[in-house]
Structure formats: C-alpha cells, structure tokens
C-alpha cells in the first residue's frame, strides 16, 4: 500500500466516529422526517402512508400563509434595522476612541443571554401597569396613566414589540460581523484615497461599501434565516397572541405537532416546505454574494 493511500485510510478511520454521529443525528433524521411528511401520524400509532396529501394540504391551509406573512414582516423589519444600525455602529466602533472596548462588550452582552430570560425581562418592561416603558412615557407626558398601552396585548403593537426585543438581542452579533469585515480592509486604500483628495463620504462609498458586500450578504442571510426560525421569543412573550397576530410558522408547527391534534406528519411536511423555501432564498443570496466577490 502506498503512503498516500495509507494516510488516506488513516484519515478516514479517524473521521469515521464523527461521520457515524453525523449520519445518526443529521442525515438519517432528515430522510426519516421526509418519510414522516408523507404519512398520517399522531406520534403513537404506526405511520400510515398517504403520499403528498400533507403537501397539498399546506396550500389549502390559510393559517400556514398567515403565519408565514408574520415571518416575512418579522424578517424584513429586523433585517433593515440590524443591517443599517449594525453597520453604522460598527463604523463608530472601528475608530480608536477611549472606552470603545467596554462599549463593544456592552453591545454584545445580550447575545449571550437566553431568549427565555430576555423574554421575562422585556415582558416586565412592556407590562401595561407596572412596566418601565409605560412609566417613562407617562412621565414624559406622552401617555395618559388612565390609558396605558398593552404592548403585548394589543394586536397593533405586539409583533413590533417582539421585533424590538429580537433586534436588541442580536444587534451586537451583527455589529461584530461588520466590525470583523471593516478590520480586514487594508488601511493603504484609505491612505491612497486621502492623498487623492477623497473625503469621508467618498471613502465610504467607493472603498468601504464595495469591500463589505460579502459581509452584508452574510448578515442578510443570517437575519432572514433567523426571522423564519423565530420561536423562543414568541413562546416566552406572547405565545402567538393576541388573536394570532404574532403567530409565526415555527409556533404553528409546534402547535400542530404537540397540540390537541398531534398531526406530526402534517407538521413535518410544513417544516420541509419552510426548509425548501429558506434554502431557495439562501441560494439566491449566495449567488449574488459570489457575483459580488467576483467583481471585487
């Protein structure tokens, strides 16, 4: 046996335990889940194969598309705020200023806190009678104490209120990604632009933004996927209410699986449908990311 083949065999043997675990916990569950999506199953009795009926039912179920519409609003709203404010704050944090390291740490702290704890904190902040937000607005004279706003109980504000919590938690994460991208831009580019008489805006437009295209696309992907996977903050704060105005697709899948109906087959079909939807969006973003890298 040649040395190359022997080294390849040794590498495969060392990788075999990890590959087995990957097959057991990732590959097999995915294909078994696809099989379950073709079945009628309550989680207790034997699955009964019904073909693509579950997938047909998705397009007949208005609740699926209502929940997806909330995900779209959630994703688009949080994406815009995270990208714009994340990039602007990263530009500030990229400067050499006193206390900037402490400020970076403060901004990143919410990222490491669990959404359950954050949900409890913000539920108290949004409390209509004892919450800090209404108290501040009342002291400023913006709100009457006799007519407090139920931020999580009013259908007009509930989804926006949850989106604010999501932005508060994840903004620091996106700032770090933008900051890492900014620090990879060669300082010589800015020095050359300064010598040529470029001002700050021109340097931002013609140097920083083109160099940061791939980072923007990466952040966009993370934001969109996170917007369609949101579940824990909804469960912690609204449980889909009021009147289903914060019902997102992950919460609907959970209720379909573990609610009174126990429709595991149908819930799995919805999961795969959402997976394929997000895969398509991600592939489109990756295509544009690759095009942006080729133009650099």
Structure explained in plain terms:
It is a single chain. With 296 residues, the protein is mainly α. The chain has 13 helices and two strands, in the order H-E-E-H-H-H-H-H-H-H-H-H-H-H-H. Strands 1-2 form a two-stranded antiparallel sheet. A hairpin with a 7-residue loop joins strand 1 and strand 2. Helix 1 packs across helix 13, helix 3 packs across helix 7 (158-182) and helix 10 (213-229) packs antiparallel against helix 13. The radius of gyration is 24 Å and the shape is flat.
Comma- or semicolon-separated keywords:
two-stranded antiparallel sheet, 296 residues, single chain, 2 strands, mainly alpha
Strand and helix map with partners:
Elements: H1 3-37, E1 39-40, E2 48-49, H2 53-58, H3 62-93, H4 100-108, H5 115-125, H6 132-139, H7 158-182, H8 187-195, H9 200-211, H10 213-229, H11 232-237, H12 249-258, H13 264-295
Antiparallel strand pairs: 1-2
The rough form would be described as flat
Assign the structural class, choosing from mainly alpha, mainly beta, alpha/beta, alpha+beta, or little secondary structure.
mainly alpha
Give the helix tally: 13
Straight-line N-to-C gap: 46 Å
State the assembly state of the protein chains.
single chain
**Number of DSSP-assigned strands:** 2
Q: What value does the Rg take, in angstroms?
A: 24 Å
The biggest beta sheet is recorded as: 2 strands, antiparallel
Low-confidence spans:
none
Mean pLDDT: 90
SSE topology string: HEEHHHHHHHHHHHH
**DSSP strand content:** under 5%
Numbering strands along the chain, what is their spatial order in the largest sheet?
Answer: 1-2
Helix content: over 70%
């Amino acid at each position: 046996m040649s040395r190359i083949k022997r080294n390849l065999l040794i590498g495969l043997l060392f990788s075999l335990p990890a590959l087995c675990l990957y097959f057991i916990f990732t590959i097999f569950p995915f294909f078994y889940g696809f099989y379950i999506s073709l079945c009628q199953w309550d989680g207790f009795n034997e699955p009964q194969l019904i073909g693509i009926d579950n997938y047909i039912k998705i397009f007949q179920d208005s609740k699926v598309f209502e929940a997806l519409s909330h995900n779209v609003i959630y994703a688009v709203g949080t994406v815009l705020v995270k990208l714009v404010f994340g990039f602007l704050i990263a530009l500030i944090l990229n400067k050499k200023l006193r206390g900037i390291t402490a400020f970076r740490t403060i901004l990143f702290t919410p990222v490491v806190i669990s959404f359950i704890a954050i949900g409890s904190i913000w539920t108290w902040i949004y409390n209509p009678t004892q919450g800090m937000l209404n108290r501040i607005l009342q002291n400023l004279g913006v709100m009457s104490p006799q007519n407090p706003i139920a931020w999580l109980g009013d259908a007009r504000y509930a989804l926006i209120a949850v989106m604010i919590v999501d932005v508060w938690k994840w903004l620091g994460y996106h700032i770090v990604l933008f900051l890492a991208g900014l620090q990879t831009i060669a300082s010589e580019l800015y020095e050359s632009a300064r010598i040529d008489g470029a001002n700050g805006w021109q340097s931002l437009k013609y140097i920083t933004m083109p160099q940061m295209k791939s980072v923007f696309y990466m952040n966009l992907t993370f934001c969109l996927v996170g917007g369609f996977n949101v579940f824990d903050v909804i469960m912690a704060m609204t449980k889909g209410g009021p009147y289903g105005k914060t019902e997102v697709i992950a919460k609907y899948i959970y209720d379909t699986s573990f609610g009174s109906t126990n429709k595991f087959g149908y819930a799995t079909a919805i999961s795969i449908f959402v997976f394929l939807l997000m895969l398509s969006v991600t592939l489109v973003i990756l295509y544009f990311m690759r095009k942006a890298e080729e133009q650099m």
